[in-house]
Amino acid sequence: MAPKWHWPQIDPDRVPLVKIEPPGPKALEIIRRDEAVIMQSFTRWYPLVVARGYGPVVEDVDGNLYIDYNAGIAVTATGHAHPKVVDAIKRQSELFLHYSLTDFYYEIAVSLAEKLTSIAPISGQKKVFFTNSGTESIEGIAKIARGYFRGQRPYIVAFYGAFHGRTYMSMSLSASKPVHRRYFSPMMPNVIHVPYPHPVHCPFKAKDPEECGRYALEFLEDWVFGRLVSPEEVAAVLIEPIQGEGGYVVPPKSFIRGLREITKEHGILLAVDEVQTGFGRTGRWFAIEHFGVEPDIIGTAKAIASGLPLGAIIGRAEIMSLPRGSHANTFGGNPVAAAAALATLSVIEEEGLLEHAERVGNEIKKALVDIAGDRHDVRGLGLMIGVELLDERRRPAKNLDEVLTRSFKRGLAVIGAGTSTVRIAPPLVIPEQMALKGVEILSDALKSR
Ligand SMILES: Cc1ncc(COP(=O)(O)O)c(C=O)c1O
Description:
The structure is a single chain. By secondary structure, the protein is of the alpha/beta class. It folds into two domains: 12-78 and 352-447, Aspartate Aminotransferase, domain 1, CATH 3.90.1150; 85-350, Type I PLP-dependent aspartate aminotransferase-like (Major domain) (Aspartate Aminotransferase, domain 2, 3-Layer(aba) Sandwich). Helix content is 35%, strand content 15%. It has a seven-stranded mixed β-sheet with strand order 4-10-9-8-7-5-6, sandwiched between helices. The site of pyridoxal-5'-phosphate has 14 residues, from helix 5. This is Ornithine aminotransferase. Belongs to the class-III pyridoxal-phosphate-dependent aminotransferase family.
């Protein structure tokens, strides 16, 4: 079943449509004003100035239409301005915009928590804590994990290549690019990083990804637990089931399963960061489902509300037990964002977007392997696909920026991850034909100079 096309203003067969080479005059003017008043600490790959969105299509201020492989960085799962999500936002806005959950009650937050606990791949009773962003979900997980052990387990283990956000604890847990931490030390103490089994750049020079995963687990047990800290001092191991910002890296199943066994053996919580992978991105509600293991606690944000700022921590009820007054926020579980989230989750179900993401993702991967598989590394699950650009020595290539800029100028909005990976994460509603048109544009951008 293909999802319905809800955006009658746009003929999907006529996208992309680049009428004025970007950045056009209106874009340039807004960029000039932006540079004058907004702190320029962002990444920003090319000058896309957005005016509107239609499902999997974005329109810039000069009237160009782009195929959207970004979804606002893996956020707009149901596409831009899905009518059901927009309608839910409108209806809730007319009732009330805010009434802090930290001190009061309202039903829509409870309904959303009920829905989230029903889809989370954790058995038994679960509870939710609402946040405003991915980084806040990860900060919350660190507090919840340490708090659960009443301060008796101060350490948290995280991974090289990980990205968990920009606030201090999340930044300290991240290790994907030096620029994220440079100038900001000291980091939070008691965070230990261990290798993640990257299939192409295994830190152990293993012969295959499985062996790389085995070495990574041995490193954790023999070198960290055997020489640095006792596992009884570790509250949680925090992992992205697929590394996002680190380069769309899919670890072997056996590695995640082994990690679950080790954490269980030592009473350590397995915390998964599903901020980027969650809510259908990989063709399952949560990416951890692909590995057949149950985590103890999950951090989410991004796609949950199709673009309104919301996040959620979902965990075993026993763990979600911080004392009254010890953790809260003003906006978490905002009623308008909660309405958008409930609508998002029901669109994903009603329009079969999990199956669609898996099917279209496989088609994109197949097409990418055909055009680039002999030279570059194509990987991913569902609509979370990376093409790592490699040089002749199978080392990361240096031309990512140019490939992305050339794609943009031809009408494909796509960004990078890690140092050399093209990051493909379109809205889950993207029609197959449009998705494959994007691959053609990328293919041209890879070939041309
Ligand atoms: C896996 C992961 N965790 C956490 C974050 C941080 O989310 P936010 O930017 O909403 O704070 C991101 C953002 O890209 C992410 O990809």
